[in-house]
Write a structure and sequence with these properties.
The protein is of the alpha+beta class. The protein is 28% helix and 16% strand. The longest helix is centred in the N-terminal third of the chain and has 30 residues, at 3-32. Its main location: membrane. InterPro entries: TonB/TolA_C, TonB_C.
C-alpha cells in the first residue's frame, strides 16, 4: 500500500471515531434531559450568524493646501572687473635751475640842449572895451524877472585867432538855467577880444573866463 492510501485510511478511521463519539454524546444528552437545551444551544450557535454591517470607511480629509511660498529673492551677481588697469604713472621732470638775471644797464640818455627862450612873451586873449556892457539889467530875461530869480553865472569862452568867441561853457550855475543860457548867448554875440599870441607874436586861439551877476534892480 502506498503512503497516500495509508493516510486516507487513517483519516477515515478518525472520522468514524469522531462521529461515533458525537452520537454517544447526543444519546447521553437525550437520556439525561439535557438533550433539548444542548441541541438548542448548539443550533443557536450553528444558526446564529453574526453579520456585521460593513460601514464605509471614512476617507481622511485632504491635507490643507499649503500657500505657495514666494520665490526666493536672488540678487544679481556683482560684476567684478578683473581687468583693472594699473594707475597711471606720472613722470615729474625737475626743471633746471633758473639762470641768474643779469641786469642790463642802459646807456645814459644824451644831453638835450634846452630850447631857446621865446623871443616874445606869449599873451592870453583879453577883452576889448568894457565887458560889463556885454550884459546889463536891460537884458534880464522876463521869465526869471517875473519869478524873481537871481544869481551869478560863471563862464569860460574860447577866442579864435580873429578875436571872436567861438564857444562858451558855464562853469558855475546861477541856479536858473535861463539866466545861464542868456549869459553865454550875450557874451558870444557881443564879446570882442584881442587874440592871444605865441612866443613869436603870432595870433593864436586862446581862452578867457569871467562871470555875470544877475540882480533885479530896485525901484
Amino acid at each position: 500500500m502506498a503512503y497516500a492510501d495509508r493516510e486516507q485510511s487513517g483519516n477515515r478511521t478518525v472520522a468514524f471515531v469522531v462521529v461515533a463519539l458525537i452520537h454517544l454524546v447526543v444519546g447521553y444528552a437525550l437520556v439525561t434531559g439535557l438533550a433539548y437545551e444542548g441541541v438548542k444551544q448548539i443550533m443557536k450557535k450553528v444558526t446564529t450568524v453574526d453579520i456585521k454591517k460593513e460601514e464605509p470607511k471614512k476617507e481622511p480629509p485632504p491635507p490643507p493646501k499649503k500657500a505657495a511660498a514666494p520665490p526666493p529673492i536672488v540678487a544679481p551677481p556683482v560684476k567684478i572687473n578683473v581687468n583693472v588697469s594699473p594707475p597711471p604713472i606720472t613722470t615729474v621732470t625737475t626743471p633746471p635751475p633758473v639762470a641768474p638775471v643779469v641786469p642790463i644797464i642802459a646807456p645814459p640818455a644824451p644831453v638835450v640842449a634846452p630850447p631857446p627862450p621865446p623871443r616874445m612873451q606869449p599873451k592870453s586873449a583879453s577883452p576889448k572895451g568894457n565887458p560889463g556892457s556885454w550884459a546889463n539889467a536891460n537884458d534880464y530875461p522876463s521869465g526869471p524877472l517875473r519869478r524873481e530869480e537871481e544869481g551869478v553865472t560863471r563862464f569860460r569862452v574860447t577866442v579864435g585867432a580873429d578875436g571872436r568867441v567861438t564857444s562858451c561853457d558855464v562853469t558855475g550855475s546861477s541856479g536858473s538855467s535861463e539866466l545861464d543860457s542868456t549869459t553865454c548867448s550875450l557874451i558870444t554875440r557881443r564879446g570882442r577880444f584881442n587874440a592871444a599870441t605865441d612866443g613869436d607874436g603870432n595870433p593864436v586861439a586862446g581862452a578867457w573866463s569871467s562871470s555875470v551877476r544877475w540882480q533885479i534892480p530896485k525901484d
